[in-house]
Amino acid sequence: MDFTLSPEALEFRESVRAVLREHFTPEVSERQHSSGTFNSPEINRALAAAGVLERAVPGLGKGDPIELWMLFNEMEKVSAPVDGISMALMIGGVVAHVGSQEQQDTVLAEILTGEVLVSLGYSEPETGSDVAAASTRAVRDGDEWVINGAKMWTTMGHVANWILLLTRTNPDVPKHKGLTMFLIPMDLPGITVEPVHTMGTERTNATFYDDVRVPDRYRIGEVDGGWKVMAVALAFERGVMGGTSMGVPLLHHFHRWAAEVRDDAGRRLLDDPLVREQMVRVAIDNEIASLMTQRCAYIAATGGLPGLEGSMVKVFSTDAYQKASKWFSRSAGPAGLLQFGESGAAGDGWVEYDARHSPVTTIYGGTGEINRNNIAERHLGLPKAR
Amino acid sequence: MRLELTDDERTIDEVFGGFFRNECPPSVVRTAEPLGFDPGLWARLAATGAPAMGLPEASGGGGASLTDLAIVAEQVGRAIAPVPFVEHAVATRLLDRFGAVTDALRDGDAIATLAVRPAAAGATWSLVPAGAVAGTVVGLVGDDLVVVTSPAPGAAPRNHAAMPLADRSPAGGTVLASGADALAAFAVARAEWQTLTAAALVGITRSALTLALTYVQERHQFDRPIGSFQAIQQQLADIPIALEGATLVAAKAAWASDAGAPSVVDVADCDITDFVTLAAMAFLYTSDVAAMATDRALHAHGGYGFSEEYDIQLYYRRARGWALVAGDPSLECRSLADTMFGPVGSEA
């Protein structure tokens, strides 16, 4: 294997870093945590202007394959707001793979300007891991569809321009075969958005669909072929489009703090042998997560769908993040309980934040259990157990 | 960037995979216990040119990269082959830097090994891997890099992994280098040993997974294969996840050596290309992975996994032995911490 970064990729990384240096200000970071909206229009716009976004959509064939990994990795390493743009670019990849020419000319082109966000409408109040049991109905009416139902966890739904909506079009066939996917504007009449606030600061939403009339051109993929679109979306979501580098800023914040804080005998926390071993273990896990993510990006960018590899790095990196958060939280003691802005907070409050944020990471985007089921069935060839 | 094997590397993998499948079924491993060395298998491996493949062509070797050697080492691990391929390759590459490789070592008629744990001046190297079967031992004694050739004991203390371990004395040896040169040369050799052992541990993990999958699909309880139970599936699904990371980090360590990658260790940026650092990281991670995988695979066998009759116990014991012979992993972590975060007591 060859892990050399090409000059082109290094140049790409520098463009991303330059944007973040200029636009990821303390104010942007503060607004992310006070609003719960993990998105920065300024950063997104600047990334588009720097020509970065079109190179980070899987399937467009621009730039070095590894750039797909680099954009989100660079943003996550400095704890910049990444969720809005990563979801948008992921859907950009879905449109590039299975969207109509019109969708490519409109939605994809808009996404690449950095001005447009997309939300994911898969989960429902009664369907989470069993996502193919979605019951939001789409009924054909001439050249239109009429959609009724509700979606949960539609993060960015309150600021998104589009939503990728999984609907039931045929209730009379096995559940995976009666689904159809739509990519619809969020401002259609009949869509309402209610906030759902979370322990981890980030705001998500419940969205409701009441007789929403949708032209057929907003359908993405075949009628009753929604599960195939879902497979593409999930393959890009897990692993490729961020969410695997959380341990890097956590280690960095903890390291800086542990080098300063001293016990009663005047010894630095950083000099404690157990703390040092845990920090090394976290650094190793960070490297492993990085390599596994690079491999997903490599597969996605060379024409493959890293579905299994994505499940693997999703499980690995979220478990590792929780382990790191738990270790550092314990080592920090009461200082690890203090939140952003409080004097003496471990890692400037990041240790406390990560203890609140990390639990959700093994739930969203497919729970650890569902991903392990997929690996057992599709990779190990074991019998279906559900 | 290319995160897959080249065609040439695939060929090496297939050739040696075939060799060990044919020449080293589990019966060979069992017959070689307790010493953990099969002279016939070593002779047949030597006939392929393997003992010298990692030496430069100018020294009469095969000019193979560390990546190539790691591919062979992974196959050694898959078969848990009772041959000192890793130790011999690493020791002869070190000796070659001082022009100290003999024809017998090149042909595999004689065996060399690396004392992976240094000895204090005047002390002996304890429990040297392959020390029971290698005539030539090279390693650190204090600040000296010493090579000694003496009759191999041919017997090992009975041990967990049936490894050909032995205490060896550096007395009467030749000093190849001293001071900083000696430490630097040894550090590279030890990192090569860690990289190749990491690859071998990846091989152990792959075989443990295969054994577990075979068993859980054959074994029926409650009228169903036990592999259809989620409790079993969730436990086994962690193995391919860990294997993916283990494979990549071992490959990256080998690449860093082959490519002469810059000695960057920037943990805050998760940018690490320093060979010695990556080798230690790969060794620590693959050690944990092989221990976890063999533990879960053995457990999935139920009581049979604990019986000598089943092969998983052979892998379980070697997964621990091949890693722990280098010493306490916590000490390795602390040494890495010095590189990553500065020494204890230093100010950042």
What do these coordinates show?
The complex is a heterodimer of chains A (386) and B (348). Chain A is of the alpha+beta class and 386 residues long. Chain A is built from 12 helices and 8 strands. Chain A folds into 3 domains: 7-117, Butyryl-Coa Dehydrogenase, subunit A, domain 1; 120-224, Butyryl-CoA Dehydrogenase, subunit A, domain 2 (Beta Barrel), CATH 2.40.110.10; 238-379, Butyryl-CoA Dehydrogenase, subunit A, domain 3 (Up-down Bundle). In chain A, 46% of the residues lie in helices and 14% in strands. In chain A, helix 4 runs antiparallel to helix 9 (273-301), helix 8 runs antiparallel to helix 9 and helix 9 (273-301) packs antiparallel against helix 10. The mean pLDDT of chain A is 94. In chain B, strands 1-3-4-6 form a 4-stranded mixed sheet, covered by helices on one side. Chain B is α+β, with helices and mostly antiparallel strands and 348 residues long. In chain B, a hairpin with a 2-residue loop joins strand 3 (136-141) and strand 4 (144-149). The relative contact order of chain B is 0.11. Chain B is built from 12 helices and 10 strands. Helices cover 54% and strands 10% of the residues of chain B. Chain B has a domain at 191-341: Butyryl-CoA Dehydrogenase, subunit A, domain 3 (Up-down Bundle), CATH 1.20.140. The chains are: A alpha+beta (386), B alpha+beta (348). Chains A and B meet through helix 8, helix 9, helix 10 and helix 12 of A and helix 7, strand 8, helix 8, helix 9 and helix 12 of B.
Secondary-structure map with pairings?
The complex is a heterodimer of chains A (386) and B (348).
Chain A: H1 7-23, H2 26-35, H3 41-49, H4 67-77, H5 83-98, H6 101-111, E1 118-121, E2 137-141, E3 144-152, E4 162-168, E5 179-185, E6 191-197, E7 203-215, E8 219-220, H7 226-237, H8 247-258, H9 273-301, H10 307-332, H11 350-361, H12 368-379
Parallel strand pairs in A: 1-4
Antiparallel strand pairs in A: 2-3, 3-7, 4-5, 5-8, 6-7
Helix pairs in contact in A: 1-3, 1-4, 4-9, 5-6, 5-7, 7-10, 8-9, 8-10, 9-10, 10-11, 10-12
Chain B: H1 7-23, H2 26-32, H3 39-47, H4 66-79, H5 85-96, H6 103-107, E1 112-114, E2 125-128, E3 136-141, E4 144-149, E5 166-168, E6 174-178, H7 179-218, E7 220-221, E8 224-225, H8 230-258, E9 265-266, E10 271-272, H9 275-300, H10 303-306, H11 312-324, H12 329-341
Parallel strand pairs in B: 1-3
Antiparallel strand pairs in B: 2-5, 3-4, 4-6, 7-8, 9-10
